[in-house]
Amino acid sequence: MQIATWNLNSLNVRLPHTLAWLEKNPIDVLALQETKLTDERFPAAALAEAGYHSVFAGQKTYNGVALLSREPASDVISALPNFVDEQKRIIAATVAGIRVISVYCPNGAALDSPKYTYKLDWFRVLAAFLQDELSRHERLVVTGDFNVAPRPEDTYDPDKWEGRILCSPPERAALQALLDCGLQDCWRLFPEREGRRRFTWWDYRGGGWPRNAGLRIDHVLASTALAAVCSSCEAHVGERGRKRPSDHVPVVAEFEL
DNA sequence: ATGGCTTAGGTGCTAAGA
Asked: In terms of Cα–Cα distance, which of A105, A127, A93 is closest to A7?
């Protein structure tokens, strides 16, 4: 069972990239973020043609999440319970007995921004939701763009990034609180990779990609039962070098079931 | 190098991203 995440920064622009990547990587589930499409514009037919069911929660211009799957998805939840929020940032569904949740966590903008408060609030509500989901689903994966680099080595330049947005202690604590619900960061299950400078996002500005000025902010978090059978977790960094790329690349985790 | 780019909406620019 292979599950991947990809922040596309517009599914409209990146549909050809998505179809080409899925043809080369015929994985079981792909979680998408920043589709930036209303539901009536979601390209479900083109994805069905490629062999994927889709469930989605979108809005105009901003945000938007989806789950593409070889097998149909059931028990879909597309908002955080008990949280008034017009922003479409989460969708959960069950595929082949696995609970999969696609999240586009808020960016936060800056430490003194109202968006930063919203980000931390959003994480708190997400933790409560995951606690509840984990109580009902032993096999669970929550994956997406978390907009948090968990450790100094998850940035290209810790001297520059430590303490700033995406790397501040409250944001890292908020991510850790998700792990404390009973989840593991699949990337960290393979410590031999430490120090290799593999990231999942590179800024469009300032030539981020050519000098590998990236961050690791897209994650695959797995429940204990799934983490125990996780055999790989890789970022497909080559996608960042394609023509008209997203600023994020796919991250793929494999589970031996 | 905190943006020098890229997106959507809409048609000249703004908002937002991370």
From this structure: A105
pLDDT on residue A194 = 81
Q: Token digits for A13? A: 């622009």
What does the pLDDT read at residue A196?
A: 86
Residue nearest the C1' of B17 (CA based):
A107
Q: What pTM, to 2 d.p., does this model score?
A: 0.97
User: Which residues from the 226-245 window of protein chain A have CB within 7 angstroms of nucleic acid chain B?
Assistant: 244
Count, residues in chain A: 257
Annotated active-site residue A204? The verdict is no
**Residue A174: partners with Cβ closer than 8 Å, 6 or more residues away:** A119, A120, A123, A124, A127, A148
Q: State residue A193's pLDDT score.
A: 85
Q: How far, in Å, are A13, A82, A156 from residue A85 at the CA level?
A: 26, 9, 33
Cβ–Cβ < 8 Å for A246, A5: no
Q: Which residue numbers in chain A have pLDDT < 70? A: none
User: Which amino acid would we find at residue A120?
Assistant: L
Residues 157-186 of A with CB under 7 A from strand B: 160-161, 164-166
- DSSP letter at A167 equals T
